[in-house]
């Protein structure tokens, strides 16, 4: 039985600004593997070989085909009730910002407007050499990799790899929104990867109520104000339903 604390509903009813940070766990119920769960991607693959600049430079074909495999998976899954609940939350607060570490664009498909993508996305591609966005054919025979039509450079996915800088504007906005919100949700993330993992601390230091939604304990579990220990696909629709009921009873 998932408990939504009444105290949290009261805080949400008084909140002007609400920020949500999501990680791979929000997409788990869509059938997308997380990274650090026992059956996650990093249990099967070496992130330094597949999600780093060195990995790409040492074997661009292997990295390119791995990402195309992940794109194929994403094209065959759908947003789950957790994604849709977050899209719904956007309508319930005066100021709502979604920040995601995910690159699968399932939040967009669920109707969230303009999520801040801290780690880029795997749907878009650009030239490794001149950075020009690439819109050409990506479905090539195994072992082949598209080339830039401007400079002939290798095409790469528009994700942030380990060791790369996050998009500056996205990170600045994420930090500013986290520092100025009333309630901060950390959903489906192990809170192990910085600078995204810093955001709940920025929120808390600036007086926000911090809520974690995760069936497992994480690096920030002992630090948050409320923990909803449940899968986000079940917890978030319930939270939205309980909050809407709370609002209907309070507004008269
Ligand atoms: N609902 C909510 N949380 C879930 C669910 C679920 N159904 N299933 C798993 N989780 C939780 C796990 O308990 C774990 O804490 O999701 C979290 C996933 O953690 P990670 O696999 O570490 O993913 P994430 O936190 O998004 O990783 C951050 O690391 O590898 C890089 O760039 C990659 O963006 C990624 C970053």
Summary, kept brief:
With 252 residues, the protein is α/β, with parallel strands linked by helices. The protein has helices at residues 6-14, 25-28, 41-44, 47-50, 53-58, 60-75, 81-89, 106-110, 168-179, 199-205, 232-250, and strands spanning 17-22, 95-100, 116-117, 120-127, 133-134, 155-159, 183-187, 209-213, 226-228.
Features:
252 residues, alpha/beta, SIR2/SIRT2 'Small Domain', 6-stranded parallel β-sheet, 3-stranded antiparallel β-sheet, 11 helices, 17% strand, elongated, binds adenosine-5-diphosphoribose
Q: What's the structural blueprint in terms of helices and strands?
A:
Elements: H1 6-14, E1 17-22, H2 25-28, H3 41-44, H4 47-50, H5 53-58, H6 60-75, H7 81-89, E2 95-100, H8 106-110, E3 116-117, E4 120-127, E5 133-134, E6 155-159, H9 168-179, E7 183-187, H10 199-205, E8 209-213, E9 226-228, H11 232-250
Helix pairs in contact: 1-11, 7-11, 9-10
The structure holds adenosine-5-diphosphoribose.
User: What series of H and E elements makes up the topology?
Assistant: HEHHHHHHEHEEEEHEHEEH
Strand line-up of the largest beta sheet = 3-2-1-7-8-9
Shape: elongated
- Provide the list of bound ligands, each named once: adenosine-5-diphosphoribose
Number of strand elements: 9
Instruction: Give the DSSP E fraction (strand runs of 2 or more residues).
Output: 15-25%
Please work out how many helical segments DSSP would assign: 11
Helix and strand content put the structural class at alpha/beta
Overall helicity: 25-40%
- Pick out the low-confidence regions: none
Q: In the CATH classification, which architecture of the largest domain applies?
A: 3-Layer(aba) Sandwich
Q: Tell me the distance between the termini.
A: 30 Å
Write the CATH homologous superfamily of the largest domain: TPP-binding domain
**Major beta sheet, specifics?**
6 strands, parallel
Annotated CATH topology of the largest domain: Rossmann fold
In the CATH hierarchy, what is the class of the largest domain? Alpha Beta
Q: Mean pLDDT across all residues, rounded?
A: 96
Radius of gyration: 19 Å
- Number of self-contained structural domains: 2
């Amino acid at each position: 039985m998932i408990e939504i604390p009444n105290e949290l509903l009261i805080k949400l009813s008084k909140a002007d600004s609400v920020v949500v940070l999501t990680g791979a766990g929000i997409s788990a119920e869509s059938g997308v593997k997380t990274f650090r769960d026992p059956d996650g991607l990093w249990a099967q693959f070496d992130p330094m070989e597949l999600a780093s600049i060195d990995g790409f430079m040492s074997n661009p074909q292997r990295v390119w085909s791995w990402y195309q495999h992940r794109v194929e998976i994403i094209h065959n899954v759908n947003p789950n009730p957790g994604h849709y609940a977050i899209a719904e939350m956007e309508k319930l607060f005066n100021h709502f910002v979604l920040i995601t570490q995910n690159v699968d664009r399932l939040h967009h498909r669920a109707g969230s407007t303009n999520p801040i993508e801290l780690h880029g996305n795997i749907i878009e591609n650009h030239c490794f050499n001149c950075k020009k966005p690439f819109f050409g054919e990506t479905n090539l025979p195994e072992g082949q990799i598209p080339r830039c039509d401007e400079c002939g450079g290798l095409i790469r996915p528009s994700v942030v790899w380990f060791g790369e800088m996050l998009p500056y504007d996205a990170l600045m906005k994420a930090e500013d929104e986290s520092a100025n919100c009333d309630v901060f949700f950390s959903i489906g993330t192990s809170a192990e990867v910085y600078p995204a993992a810093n955001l709940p601390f920025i929120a808390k230091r600036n007086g926000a109520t911090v809520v974690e939604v995760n069936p497992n304990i994480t690096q920030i579990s002992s630090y948050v104000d409320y923990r909803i220990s449940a899968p986000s696909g079940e917890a978030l629709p319930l939270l939205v339903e309980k909050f809407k009921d709370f609002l209907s009873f309070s507004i008269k």
